[in-house]
Amino acid sequence: MFAMKYFISNVARKVYINLLYNVKTLVSNPEWFLMRKISRFHLIRDFVKRIIIQSNKLELLEFLEKHKSQKSQIFLNINVDKIIKNLEKEGIFQGINLPTDIVNNILEFALKTNCYGDHQYKFGFLFNEREKAELYYKRRFISAKYYNISQECQSIKEIESDPVLLEIAARYLKTKPLHIGTLMWWNFPINSEHQEYNKISSSTYHYDLDDYNSIKFFFYLTDVYINNGPHVYIIGSHKNKKILHQLLRGRISEKDIISYYGQENILTICGSAGWGFVEDTFAVHQGTRPISQSRLILQLNFASHDYNMENDWVNPIRLQGIFFGDEDYPQSQK
Ligand SMILES: O=C(O)CCC(=O)C(=O)O
Ligand SMILES: [Fe+2]
């Protein structure tokens, strides 16, 4: 009886929270709310996409013309035609790598800048002080995110406006690409039974709804092998999903993925620091859990429309952190 009551009150609580969230987003960003509800259906998505592409033809031509003469300082010897072909067929292309000096610059920035545990503004700490920070905050962190990174790191800013990335985005989206956000975060190795894990990490199969037409570039900033949380991508799922998965977007089980797409279409992406790939994240994908070492990853997000929901800008006043320095006496930071 008690268990039944507990179950019902738990379900009621979840429904209530969900409803509240829906009302809040409907009021604050109705366009985004609608897109999230309908862009999951391939038929609707393709239809809206076609309209967007048609009405942006001139803008795209102007954009490509303007960028034709610009040369990338970062990505050399990149065959954009091949990338677009692969993106269209499989939804992904690997091997757009960052040079070592850029990786080192970003790593240096990441190590001297606060990251925020479990994406909460009040849990700032330096990566190298994670263990002390966990004792101080009395909790274990699964991941930690950086904020305002392109304002603070010149190398990241340069990647955001790189002509090769912009050309890939423009030609895949078939519209003028809008840079809608850059994110950088750590995934820490942790016991997989940790209950909070799935809430905060993307560590179960899912697909993203950032726009009707969007694309993401990912760059590993630490070596990522099978035990360090590789990204996993389901080849071809950007064009084809089970009706049930379109309907109940939710989280998709591995068993379902294997039986629907086949083991041969599950792509596990391993690579050393700097390894880069671009993908249509409307396909099913996940970031797996690191088992041995932490993973640092950078992500750039481009789309046809910016709903202002994907960026990492936060008023620095809201960010709070803890700093231990050489001593074990923590100092709060504002
Ligand atoms: O952590 C990862 O590799 C995946 C992240 C993800 O799902 C996303 O950025 O959309
Ligand atoms: Fe995702």
Provide a brief overview of the structure.
40% of the residues lie in helices and 17% in strands. It has 13 helices and 13 strands. An eight-stranded antiparallel sheet has the order 1-9-6-11-5-4-2-3. It has a three-stranded antiparallel sheet with strand order 8-7-10.
Structural key phrases:
13 strands; alpha+beta; 40% helix; 334 residues; single chain; three-stranded antiparallel sheet; binds 2-oxoglutaric acid; binds fe (ii) ion; Jelly Rolls; eight-stranded antiparallel sheet
How does this model look, in words?
This protein is of the alpha+beta class and 334 residues long. It has one domain (39-333): Jelly Rolls (Sandwich), CATH 2.60.120. Helix content is 40%, strand content 17%. Strands 1-9-6-11-5-4-2-3 form an eight-stranded antiparallel β-sheet. A three-stranded antiparallel β-sheet has the order 8-7-10. A hairpin with a 6-residue loop joins strand 2 and strand 3. Helix 1 (2-28) crosses helix 2 and helix 4 (57-68) runs antiparallel to helix 10. The N and C termini lie far apart (49 Å). The relative contact order is 0.18. The chain binds 2-oxoglutaric acid and fe (ii) ion (FE2).
